[in-house]
Amino acid sequence: MNINDNNNSFAINTSLKIDHVHLRVSNLKESVNFYQSILGFKVLKDKSIANTTVFLASSAVNNTNTNTISENKEKILPLLVLNQIDNDDAILNHKIVRKESGLYHFAILLPERKNLASFLRHMQKNLDPQFYEGMADHVVSESIYLHDPDYNGIEVYRDRLPWQWKWNQDKVYMVTEPLDVKDLFIQNPDEKWTELPSDTSIGHVHLHVSNLNRSKQFYQNMLGLNYTASYPGAYFFAASHYHHHVATNTWMGTNILPANNSNNKPGLDHYAIRLPYFKEEEIRELKNRLKNMGIYIDKTINKSDMQYTSSFYIYDPDRIKIQFLFH
């Protein structure tokens, strides 16, 4: 990785991925049940911390309890971490819309179109309509939208093949059109949804921010992501030649508050960016580059971080917390 503190053409490692999303929830038991029964997540029982934190993954390793998975056979890393908040007043009022920076939605990327078809059938039969948000064809992908009991937004999607994406130099063509449900079901007429496929991943995160240009400066020039697309009120960023790993929007307004980083309200605690394992000097170089650009490095170590070789936190201009992981 070549780092030049005065070079705005810096690019983050092209193998960057979104590793996991960490959410604060008002009722841990209710949320775990939702993510298991509707999305098909499995509990990493060996990682759970008392009654406060649950780790959820997609891999289905044989186990006597179909709602949990064991880590004895292979190392399985979580896609989603749920943390119980400790504020009774917030729990009572968690359905009030919060006009502050944070999560618009996190996106669960399914490996094949047939998976999206079976998930949609499952959702139509089992999802309470109050949690349903909509469906869309974005040309690069096909998506289904819903939210969890705390109104954390969720996108479940599948990508079209990269050669089908339309690029104009460094910008990818994305739109919002109706999803062709009939055609989707033709692709997979019978398969039932029982769990997330083992190679499911977190494809991207989409964030509410207060200023698009300020966020663009951060994600493009400071973190080195490519600015890949724009939409009215929204910008999209990615490593390498993906359509987007991070999106920002001002659809909630430009007068919203910074993100709440305490454990007293439901919402996004942080999202994690995974990079391939760097040598120690490469990690130091990255930290120094961020520091030289005025970004605070938070070296706090939480229990959930112990599984990673190395990690640290930073904050975007709206105080949205981002974890860098190296493993």
Architecture overview:
This protein has 327 residues and is of the alpha/beta class. It has a single domain, classed as 2,3-Dihydroxybiphenyl 1,2-Dioxygenase, domain 1, CATH 3.10.180.10. 19% of the residues lie in helices and 31% in strands. The protein is built from six helices and 18 strands. It has an eight-stranded mixed sheet with strand order 4-2-3-5-1-16-18-17, covered by helices on one side. An eight-stranded mixed sheet has the order 7-8-9-6-12-15-14-13, covered by helices on one side. Strands 10-11 form a two-stranded antiparallel ribbon. A hairpin with a 7-residue loop joins strand 14 (234-238) and strand 15 (246-249). Helix 3 crosses helix 4. The longest helix is centred in the middle third of the chain and has 14 residues, at 113-126. It is globular. Residues 1-7 have low confidence and may be disordered.
Rg of Cα set: 19 Å
Shape-level CATH architecture? Roll
Number of domain modules: 1
Percent of residues in beta strands? Answer: 25-35%
Order of H and E elements: EHEEEEHEHEEEEEHEHEEEEHEE
> Which CATH top level class fits?
Alpha Beta
Please tell me what the overall shape is: globular
Number of helices: 6
pLDDT averaged residue by residue: 87
Helix content: 10-25%
Largest sheet: 8 strands, mixed
Uncertain ranges:
1-7
Main structural class: alpha/beta
How far the N terminus sits from the C terminus, by CA atoms, comes to 16 Å
CATH fold group: 2,3-Dihydroxybiphenyl 1,2-Dioxygenase, domain 1
Strand order of the largest sheet: 4-2-3-5-1-16-18-17
Number of strands: 18
